[in-house]
Write a structure and sequence with these properties.
single chain; 7 helices; mainly alpha
């Protein structure tokens, strides 16, 4: 059994920190690390060490700070905006709430133990699941969309992109969407949700 070389171990710890901070998947975190190294004109190990400083609450050295911020911003805005993500069936808010709670816990665990590959793998799986359920390719956008969905559910309002029957955004090809809490009266005279 061979041990992981120190340079690769440091890089994988930095990947875990980036996954928790951005948030993003492992592949995107590796791309952020490579882009930062290239922009800063430094090696991968030095860049990884700068990222680990960020994960510990510190500030990366001057050549890495701007390059890292730019790479993280690029990863966060890599795909479509969150303005109208709900043009399909919405996932169950309870399921999304449980996944968000798990995702947040894993992000905290990843920052506390960036050397643990099991935490990194769990975080990557949770991020992927969140992207699939929210129909987004970008983890940051999926996270924001999920929080928007839960916020709207919690407040009892509609989500942007869905409408109340007869509302200004009603699409002629879509059936009307009821607002949570709206009741319809059945033919027997009894109310039902």
């Amino acid at each position: 059994m061979s041990e992981t070389p120190p340079q690769q171990a440091t890089a994988e710890q930095a990947v875990t920190v980036l996954m928790a901070v951005v948030p993003c998947g492992a592949d995107t975190a590796r791309q952020i690390l490579a882009d930062t190294a290239w922009a800063a004109g430094a090696g991968l190990r030095e860049t990884a060490e700068a990222v680990l400083l960020l994960g510990g609450g510190g500030k990366p050295p001057a050549p890495f700070g701007r390059a890292l911020a730019d790479a993280m911003d690029e990863a966060r805005s890599a795909t479509e905006s969150v303005t109208r993500p709900y043009t399909r069936l919405l996932p169950d808010p309870q399921t999304i709430g449980e996944l968000l709670k798990r995702h947040r816990g894993l992000r905290r665990r990843a920052l506390a133990a960036p050397h643990d590959p099991a935490v990194r793998d769990e975080l990557d799986d949770a991020t992927y699941t969140l992207c699939i359920l929210m129909g987004q390719r970008n983890a940051y956008t999926a996270l924001r969309s999920a929080e928007l969905l839960l916020g709207a559910e919690w407040l009892g309002t509609t989500v942007p992109g869905t409408t109340v029957p007869g509302g200004p955004d009603q699409h002629p090809d879509r059936p009307p969407v009821r607002s949570p809490g709206t009741r319809q009266q059945g033919t027997t005279g009894h109310d039902f949700p």
